[in-house]
């Protein structure tokens, strides 16, 4: 995570002779719909219904305060979970904008802005002119001198809306929280790239099981199994390694890797599937799960939604005690390249016990340097 700049407090003479210069930032796009779709995955509000109308319902899982990191390569928005077990971020590449102006030497690593603002206020300001986002242009501006992040919308009829959001450059406990370093501290043992549409369709089955609070992810060299237990019994999804589902599926060592996560937080991490084309799962040796959604807009420009989630602590000891006994327990399929019509198998089992079972601002690739076992793999990183 980018650190916040040191205090500029000092005498007037010190300020006047300081080598620091303000570099106002400006970015313009006509792709407002994509921006709103991406940033909505970070919002502290979740969809709700009242009398048939969708209304925002407050969620207690994320801080509303969002870290914003502006650099020559793009803008990163980052929020952290209230209980410090999750972190979500959206990276908007500079080429997503029609105009991206950040004055200064782009070879200077210190060039840019770090600030904090309310993500819900930002999203509200981007939707003032109504739902026809494809007909609305959006402009972001910011200057360290004013500490104002301004959002200006203009529709095709020339109607303009401008919202000035007071930002803060003060470092907070939330801004110091960084799960990126926690994830990078341990070697990756699972890596899977999945078609987002298939993943969304399959995970919808998990969400339909009311009353479940945990989700088990079990990765083997030839299959991904997702399961949960709730009021409807056990929902069990078997996603075999086939070209209709996976771009790649790798485990190191090549055995079964099983972890358990909070269903509520994992469901938040899956929200990016709604707009993504591909989704990458990575799990490190400590069970920390990193999800990266690759989103391609109508002009073939890439942007990314990242989510990092720690495993449930009460499952770690059980997993470690069972790991020796499960090293040889891998799920083999009769044909590695089997293409199924639905892309996955699913079943609901009543009264059955569950299976045994845990960029962000930093530029972190969703892939390592090893060769993929599938030539169709399309790398995406940020």
Automatic annotation (TrEMBL):
Q: Which portions of the chain have biased composition (kind: Acidic residues)?
A: 368-382
BP-aspect Gene Ontology terms:
DNA damage checkpoint signaling; DNA repair
Ranges for region Disordered = 1-22, 321-382
Does the keyword Membrane feature in the UniProt annotation?
no
The main location is nucleus
Where in or outside the cell it occurs: the entry states:
Nucleus
From the UniProt annotation, give the residues forming the signal peptide. none
The UniProt regions of compositional bias labelled Polar residues, in chain numbering, are 321-335
**What family does the Swiss-Prot or TrEMBL record give for this protein?**
Belongs to the rad1 family.
What's this protein's name? Uncharacterized protein
Species of the source: Triparma laevis f. longispina
């Amino acid at each position: 995570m980018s650190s916040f700049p040191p205090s500029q407090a000092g005498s007037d003479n010190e300020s006047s002779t300081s080598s620091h210069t303000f570099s106002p930032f400006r970015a313009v796009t006509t792709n407002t719909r994509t921006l709103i779709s991406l940033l909505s995955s970070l919002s502290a509000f979740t969809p709700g219904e009242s009398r048939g109308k969708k209304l925002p319902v407050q969620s207690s899982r994320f801080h509303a305060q969002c870290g914003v990191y502006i650099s020559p390569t793009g803008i990163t928005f980052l929020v952290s979970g209230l209980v410090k077990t999750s972190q979500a971020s959206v990276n908007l590449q500079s080429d997503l904008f029609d105009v991206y102006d950040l004055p200064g030497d782009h070879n200077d690593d210190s060039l840019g802005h770090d600030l904090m603002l309310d993500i819900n206020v930002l999203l509200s300001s981007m939707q003032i002119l109504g739902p026809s986002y494809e007909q609305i242009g959006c402009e972001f501006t910011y200057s360290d001198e004013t500490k104002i992040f301004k959002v200006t919308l203009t529709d095709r009829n020339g109607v303009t809306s401008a919202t000035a959001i007071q930002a803060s450059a003060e470092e907070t406990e939330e801004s110091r929280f960084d799960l990126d370093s926690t994830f990078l501290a341990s070697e990756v043992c699972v890596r899977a790239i999945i078609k987002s549409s298939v993943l969304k369709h399959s995970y919808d089955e998990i969400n339909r099981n009311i009353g479940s609070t945990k989700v088990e992810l079990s990765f083997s060299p030839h299959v991904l199994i997702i399961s949960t237990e709730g009021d409807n019994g056990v929902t069990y999804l078997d996603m075999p390694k086939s070209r209709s589902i996976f771009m790649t599926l790798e485990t190191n060592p090549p055995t079964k890797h099983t972890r358990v996560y909070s269903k509520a937080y994992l469901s938040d991490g899956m929200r990016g599937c709604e707009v993504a084309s591909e989704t990458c799962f990575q799990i490190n040796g400590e069970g920390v799960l990193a999800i990266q959604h690759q989103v391609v807009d109508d002009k073939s420009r890439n942007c990314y939604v990242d989510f990092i989630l720690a495993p449930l602590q009460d499952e770690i000891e059980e997993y470690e005690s069972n790991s020796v006994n499960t090293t040889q327990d891998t799920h083999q399929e009769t044909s590695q390249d089997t293409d199924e019509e639905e892309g996955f198998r699913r079943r609901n089992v009543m009264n059955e016990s569950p299976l045994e079972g845990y960029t962000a601002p930093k530029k972190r690739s969703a892939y390592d340097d090893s060769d993929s076992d599938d030539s169709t793999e399309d790398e995406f990183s940020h």
